[in-house]
Amino acid sequence: MTCGISCVDNALNRSFYKLGLFIGRHPGYFLIVPVLLALLCMTGYQQIKYEIDPEYLFSPIRGEGKSERAIVESYFKVNYTHRFNVGRITRPGRFGRVIVISKDESNKNLLRSEVWQELRLLDGIIQNATVQYDGETFTYREACARWENECFTNDILNLDKIIDEVEAGDLNLTFPVMFNPVTWDAHVFPVFFGGTQVSEDNIIISVPSLQLVYFVTADSKRQDARGAAWEEAFLEAVGYAEDNGVFKHISVARFASRTLDHELERNTRTVIPYFSSTFVLMILFSVVTCMMGDVVRSKPWLGLMGNISAVMATCAAFGLAMYLGIEFIGINLAAPFLMIGIGIDDTFVMLAAWRRTSVKLSVPERMGHMMSEAAVSITITSLTDMISFWIGILSPFPSVQIFCAYSGFAVCFTYLWHITFFAGCMAVSGHCEFKNLHAIFGYKVLPESVAIKEKRSWLYRKLNTGGINRDDPDNPIDNKEHALMAFFRETMARILNKGWTKTIILVIFAAYLGGACFGLTKIKEGLERRKLSKADSYSVKFFDLEDEYYREFPYRIQVIVTGDQNYSDPHTQMQIEELMQSLENTSYVTSPLYSESWLRSFISYVDRNNDYLNLTLDSEQAFIDALREIWLFPANPFSLDVKFNEAGTKILASRFMIQAVNITDTNHEKVMVKDLRQICKDSPLNATVFHPYFVFFDQFELVRPTSIQSMIVGALIMMLISFIFIPNFLCSLWVAFSIISIELGVAGYMALWDVNLDSISMINLIMCIGFSVDFTAHICYTYMSSKARTPDERVREALYSLGMPIVQGSTSTILGVVALLLADSYIFLVFFKMVFLVIFFGAMHGLFLLPVLLSLFGPGSCTSNYHPDDDHKLSAVEKSYPHPYCISHPQLALTGAFGSKNFLGAPYKAYGEDKDLGIGTSGEDSSESSSSKSQRRQAIEDENTRRRYEEGWRRSTHNLTGQSQFQPMLDLYGQEALWTKTASKVPPLKVANGRYGYDDMLLNVAQGQTTTATRKQRSADLEHDRPEDHRRDRRRSAEDERYKSRYEDNRTFVDDEMLDDTDYQHTNRYYVYDTSHVKRLSNDSSAAGSSNSGHPHNHNAGGGHHAGAQGGGPSSDQHNNPVVANRRKFSDESDNRGRRHSDERRPRKFSPPEGIYKQNPHRSSSQHNLYYPRQPPQRTASQSSLHQLRHMGDMRFP
């Protein structure tokens, strides 16, 4: 990581690497223990506490409405049995309510005799509905709320006595109040009539809607239970009459206090059947996307186990939460859909990391590398998801708290189960892959390269081959690159790195932000009650009719005045009157005609009748005595509005009534409650306002600041977490910027998608804080972990590593919540809409916006103008290399006495195309002095080292054969290595898996170490042999010059300082070098004989490479084989120098490092390719070539 790796990241990498090793060695424990723990936790379902009370779930825990209700109930408790008044209730209680409209579209007026007859029939059906409860049978008459021992009734029905006259026009109904001339009932029409059309003289012209209300007692728990049973009978009776055509002229919509409870429970039951279909859909998706053309490396069963792991973890988490006594609510059923998506996302990330490990490593090592990479990544995302849900637990809404608690447990358990249970499944699958077993059926299959050699059929190769050939693990046939991953690196990254593409993305992003800001201006707040019901519910019709006809006079609001007040004092009376007038003068309260004030009416009564009453109200006691004696008699409803102390000598509290008007939506309700409360706070009196629905309205006031606060806190915490794991402040800022951008987008576009800002959407906004980090954190972490030098190269590696997992994860998460769309419920529909928005926006940010921003403003963006996509095209070899992101770290152990010679044994000269253009162009014939040549060569070496580091490698311009594509180097893997020096003077050194020997280079591949005495002896041998070497080299043919110059200019210099260090380790890429001309050089030079002269320093170009058989002469096969014959000629020259190989120097077979093998398709079978590491970057003269060697590559000689 260019910005430095944090201690947290290091510790996690080490810990997860060790965990991966342990899982790889002992997967059984991690399969059995999580299953047993899940079964143990699931026993907690016996402790389930199901909560469906909408007031508890969707109102703030410490809302002002609840405080106001506590004040009212402390002074004015409702007595359902004897003193019930519908305008003075403090809780909804148990009730049934119907709204009646006309079926006749041409005549919607209900003031008709046939309508009133059916209204009477409806009333009879309701009152005569029988109820069975606890062995008791009763009707409404036995359970009704009462006023002075009289059942609460709808006196509006007494208009049937005069309805014929009203219909004929002989009698007018005056709005808003009228006394019935027959029954002397005072009909308050706004309570019953809805949408009333009134003339200028307040004469009622038409009544399109009428409502009837029935209250039952609910003073105790048993009465409340009896009331609930009556509500069930009420809903059933009215529903049966409506559905079976009992009424010919009226249409009835019904509602009860249990309706919302029913709807929440119905929402829960509706979504349950979709669990199985979602699970099947997710299994199919994950199984298909985890499969490959390789039947061994395919992981279909891991796709299935990823789903099982997520489901098992969610069930265990829910069981533990129930053990802890947390209530369970229906909204929690959305969590399993989300957890399956999260689990599959983690599955894809872990599988992608597994595929980037070396197939030649053992299963425990691959598990260690996979866990050290993927587990850190999913730790970041899981931690952010958990913290976002923990932030939600601090919400004031119980529904949000409960959902976040269950979801937080589920995320935690899903994470734990994936790094244990699923990792164990991966280990088992890895062992099957190592054994080359079929991914589905488990029997052993052939690698495709072997099947081709055995000439198996095309169908067999397609359906029954896979894995790698362990004898040749790096062949390109068995190491095919994943096409989609290559698409993200080669195509998508190249397009994103173009300047015009970045401009388009930034313009689209600006338009996206503009649309989000516009949506924020259209956002509505509050959870409408109708949205808690399913679309096909009977209650939807009721809510629609209520909104249409009963929004003109919706709420009867109570004004409570408490404290030590002297009501006989005119100043106090004036303060109360000013408070009432201030409330009545607001746009949300109608005229004083609809208000009820015991004080106003009492003083008016006394003033009008003082001559008769002869009362003196100067003292408080006289005022109270007159009030109780004259005005607050039991039959007067005002007697419910004054609370005296126990002695009856002081008024403790009083209540007044005002009527709300024209409250059409939730925004009006929020503003109304806020303004009325503010007026009470500004009053010198200790006053407050209250209505039972104010408890619900409190969410409208709190949901916006709570959501904003949660998003800000969440963004700060996520930025801190990202900085801990990605220790670059700028990148952390971009992660935080992405979070804010995604949250703004979700909030803005949800408003345009008809989603209100309420407790349900707030759950999703809080959840989106964590989800918005997932893709951005993955991309940012991979971008910062890349060892590439330029931003564009980092973008390539980030998209190669995570492009496909992001697409898979986002698709799986959206598929996981598609079932919520089918549930036809607002609650779950909001979940689908918002999860879709956050996943879609998050994926777009991760795949497009964040790579562009990081490349423009991220680390290194201002220090390099290098664009590899413009001038550095990868060759087929580099494209075929399967592990550009995660490369293993083998060792290169080189020991021996090295002079200024490269691996070919010839004098060092800077590789590249630059040559000595003096009079003599080689060796002793050069016109330059030795110091001048040395300085020139050093300058050439430095320049070409820098150039080759930037360009990868440069193709040779000296293409004498017309087919050579790369620089000449020796085929380390095509020949056998034989040692010709110091065979009898030093302990033998063996070449493990090597095939070529080198005259002046000793590779201790068996143990990677050598003694000082050995090194001194080898140096002495070199000095002794040098004169003979020079004489022989002078006889080299001039014809060799053109071949010599081709490879002499392209060398790897290894200094004597390598003697001080024998163990080197570095990670880099491998490249292929064509060595066909080396074979021609060795053949031609052998044919030329010893009489030809050559360069004195070139003695190892031909004679320094030996490939003869051990002991006696070569066999007949060796004579017939040109390669073997070539080796024999090298060996003959060595024999003339008195060097022989002992038996213990016989080499073992060598396999090239993984993923680098590439046979040149233009070469014949006798022409070989060499795999040689990329050259080091430019270093100063003071830095030893030992450090250059450490940057050479990953070539391993075990």
Structure overview:
The chain has 1198 residues and is α+β, with helices and mostly antiparallel strands. Helix content is 52%, strand content 7%. The protein is built from 39 helices and 21 strands. Strands 13, 14, 15, 16 and 17 form a 5-stranded antiparallel beta sheet that branches. The radius of gyration is 44 Å and the shape is elongated. 47% of the residues are buried. The N terminus and C terminus are likely disordered.
Please outline what is shown here.
This protein is α+β, with helices and mostly antiparallel strands and 1198 residues long. Strands 13, 14, 15, 16 and 17 form a five-stranded antiparallel beta sheet that branches. Strands 8-11-1-12 form a four-stranded antiparallel beta sheet, with helices on both faces. It has a two-stranded antiparallel sheet with strand order 2-3.
